[in-house]
Amino acid sequence: MASYFPNITLGNLPQQLLQHIQSLSTGDLLQYALIAGGASVFSCVFVYIPVRFIYRVYFHPLAGIPGPKFQLISLYFSRVYWTTNGNKGTFLFRLQGWHEKYGPIVRTAPNMIHFNDIDTYNQIFKVGTKYPKSATLYTNLTTQGSLLNITDFHEAHLRRGALQPYFSKQSVRRLEGLINSKVSKFLDRLDGMDTINISRGFRCLACDVITTYSYEQCFEALEDPAFAPDWLLAFESLLDIPPFAEIFPPLMIFLTWFFEKLDRATIRKISPSVSAVLDFTDQCSTAVRRQKSRWDAGEKDMVTIFAQLFQDDPKKGRKASTDSELGADALLTVSAGMDTLGHTLTQATYYLVKNPDIQSKLLSELKTVMKNPRDDVSEEALEHLPFLQACLKESLRFAHGAPGPLPRDVPPSGATIMGHYLPPGTITSTSQYFYHTNPDIFPEPLKFNPERWLAEDTREQEKYFVPFSRGARVCIGLNLAWGELSLTLARLVRRYEVSFSDEFKEENMQWKALFVPITKGPLLVNVKERRE
Ligand code: HEM
């Protein structure tokens, strides 16, 4: 066997090394490789990681910001910790403990901070902000190419500008007939149903409204006998993506690439859920492509929220969206509204059933604009009902929209927030959950109490109320959401007495924070039609 330390002289080192390597047998090479590998692992574990940890704790520009030190050891270590062993979706609640311990600004990763301060929130989440969405964290593959993942200000501004007119208050008012017709269908479906999974029912309703509006093609989710179309069940199972995909994002990219190469029948055999989600994604893309063909053929008076995206806008310097961007936005508009709306209506119904006195106060108010249980109503009439509006706000406060940390990058100029200098590229993050549960603003924050919104002066509550986020990237669908929330809740409560089903367990309502809140189980109810 060759010596590991060959007799070489410095004069002609590279050549001598090459000759030495060429003289080695395969067995020798393997031994060298093992020794080199072992030495690398050893120095990584016992030298590189500890030295890097010491740098991060004492010498990094963010060293002055308090926080749990174990979060600074390794990003991979953190990812493994927060995605396995029942920890998934609980980061938000741990953050709460850290804020109690360390104060309103906490360093949560080597290059990331989390703050709980509404004035800083308003500085970062404002129109004209210099803090873009974080490029390293808005990378979800299912929304790739869509508005949600755009981090560049100008590009996002142009894309939003093309979609926004269809979501203005006036546009949503014109949609009232559509929303009311879907709500009627939803309520008619409840009639005669036994145990109702109303969490899914609400999501089917949201899906049918937005698909009809977006692509003039209702996906007829409300037709499903149990409000459980395949794609909805598949989305439910895939929302909780497996830990390995979060721990090794490249693996997810590889799997996506791999699935793209397979035909649908093979995918169906490997994973029926992935196949159902892909079918749904195709359905959205096909619907929007069909509209584009009609548009290109000269049918310019069609109603589609994508009309402006079909064409260049030379004045603004916006290029027409590509087919894959259109498909991504088509999927986003359905998915962005479905879970958020469904969850908010689920919270509203749960707390009204749990608090009969609140429900009966709401019912009395609703009777002033809906004489009969089956009456239609306009959103404008509902806007003048203070108690209903208070119930909706309280439900949104409990639903939290996108509760977990929303990440934004510090601009190239760097920034000072809450007395700490943050170098360019630092990721800042904050969570609406903390504002909505601040006990100084919302006393007894975990009590569903609509009355808090009826106080003489609610400016402080409004300041802390951010279910749709704020500023340049505020939810584009918020007017539509208000329309759907108020018409659905008002007409549901006016028409039916809702009660918990015997199969319903309180623990179902425990939730964890993925990008949206996911409850442990569904809200299961029974309904009885009101006589008057
Ligand atoms: C109760 C209902 C809803 C809530 C609480 C809600 C909440 C939110 C929040 C918090 C964001 C910001 C996310 C971020 O910064 O990453 C957002 C973004 C967005 N929402 Fe909603 N949403 C709701 C309903 C809807 C509906 C019905 C639509 C239908 C079109 C919609 C479409 C969008 C879109 C497209 C974005 C991305 C905007 C952008 O990145 O510029 N949302 N929503």
From TrEMBL:
GO molecular function per UniProt: heme binding; iron ion binding; monooxygenase activity; oxidoreductase activity, acting on paired donors, with incorporation or reduction of molecular oxygen
UniProt cross-references to Pfam families, sorted A to Z: p450 (PF00067)
Co-factor requirement: heme
Transmembrane segments: 29-49
Protein name, as recorded: Cytochrome P450
The entry's keywords: Heme, Iron, Membrane, Metal-binding, Monooxygenase, Oxidoreductase, Transmembrane, Transmembrane helix
Keyword Amino-acid biosynthesis attributed: no
Superkingdom of origin: Eukaryota
Keyword Lyase among record annotations: no
Binding site for heme: 475
Protein family per UniProt: Belongs to the cytochrome P450 family.
CDD domains per UniProt: CYP58-like
Entry-linked InterPro entries: Cyt_P450 (IPR001128), Cyt_P450_CS (IPR017972), Cyt_P450_E_grp-I (IPR002401), Cyt_P450_sf (IPR036396), Cytochrome_P450_monoxygenase (IPR050121)
